[in-house]
Specification:
Structural class: alpha/beta
Bound molecules: adenosine-5'-diphosphate, magnesium ion
Radius of gyration: 18 Å
Strand content: 15-25%
Helix content: 40-55%
CATH class: Alpha Beta
CATH topology: Rossmann fold
CATH superfamily: P-loop containing nucleotide triphosphate hydrolases
Number of domains: 1
Number of strands: 8
Length: 290
């Protein structure tokens, strides 16, 4: 009992290895700030003393490399093809986090047989216990591939903006994710709002809808204001957490990240390597579609 408590506090698994928190950053609509926030969240969590890996899992339109001004030699597609091991695809960033580029890997991941994915699962498993946090920057929407990434994670950060389309699409994401896993913690985070009150109102409205039509509730991460500094940082390919550590947006992100890290994880997949979860969910979804 005591040993179990100790390992849980330290984030270790039954084998005494580090057990990372696996967090999806997703949205209903594109262009709401997933990649911007994934990279800056990674850097912020690193400043909160976590060792972080960010996976660019927006398999069609990934742009983490562009946001950071890096030109990765390889992506996860090369790993799936068996050209390289996953380790060789990692990019170590100056800010102290690692990036795994995956954009462009859609055909490989969609068409890969279980055997190929099992190889990926083994190779990725070797990395997992080096990190405290792994962030998957997923694509937008409810395609099977996006869902498969989200359902493999321990908790989901759902980004919304005040745009009505973003809210309607976010509700669709909640509905589908809850349809597969009722216990998945969904942490709605408002981005590009004009005030913190606007963020609160968006959350309350969404939570009310969820409660009324789906049952249960979603959590609130907090709000990030629309800030020209964020878009300028993107154009300059310099993450704002590094260049503007004392800005109000960076401070808001710090509070949101502290809240996200503290929220309990879904235990459904505890201890199971990420891509094994991926294989399992893929099989389940194929079964649902028969
Ligand atoms: N809080 C913000 N304030 C101003 N611009 C933002 C903010 N968050 C994101 N953006 C801008 O929105 C655009 C889309 O962001 P991106 O992270 O690429 O979205 P996604 O990954 O969801 O498609 C980028 O040009 C970025 O600069
Ligand atoms: Mg993106």
């Amino acid at each position: 009992m005591l040993q179990k408590m100790a390992t849980q506090t330290l984030g270790l698994n039954a084998e005494g290895l580090r057990q990372p928190q696996i967090i999806a950053v997703t949205s209903g609509k594109g262009g709401v700030g997933k990649s911007t926030m994934s990279v800056n969240m990674g850097l912020m969590m690193q400043r909160l003393n976590r060792k972080v890996l960010v996976v660019d899992a927006d398999i069609h339109l990934g742009n983490v490399d562009f946001i950071l001004g890096i030109r990765p030699e390889y992506t996860i597609a090369d790993v799936v093809r068996g050209t390289i091991g996953v380790e060789e695809a990692l990019v170590a960033l100056n800010g102290g986090i690692d990036i795994l580029p995956a954009a462009g890997a859609a055909p490989e991941l969609l068409e890969a047989g279980d055997g190929v994915l099992q190889k990926l699962a083994r190779s990725f498993k070797g990395l997992e216990n080096r990190y405290d946090v792994i962030i998957f920057d997923t694509g937008a929407g409810i395609s099977q591939l996006v869902l498969n990434f989200v359902l493999g994670c321990d908790k989901t950060v759902l980004l919304v903006t005040p745009d009505p389309a973003s809210l309607a699409d976010a509700y669709a994401v909640i509905k589908v994710v809850r349809g597969h896993n009722r216990r998945m913690p969904i942490i709605m985070t408002a981005n590009m709002v004009r005030s913190h009150e606007e963020g609160d109102v968006l959350y309350k409205k969404m939570n009310l809808m969820v409660n009324r039509f789906l049952g249960g509730h979603i959590d609130f991460g907090g709000a990030i204001l629309r800030d020209d500094m964020v878009s300028t940082s993107i154009k300059q390919q310099r993450p704002f957490v590094m260049d503007h550590p004392n800005s109000s947006t960076t401070k808001a992100l710090r509070m949101i990240n502290q809240r996200i890290l503290k929220m309990p994880n879904d235990k459904t997949n505890e201890g199971m390597p990420f891509f094994e979860r991926f294989i399992l969910n893929r099989r389940k979804m194929a079964g649902d579609n028969l």
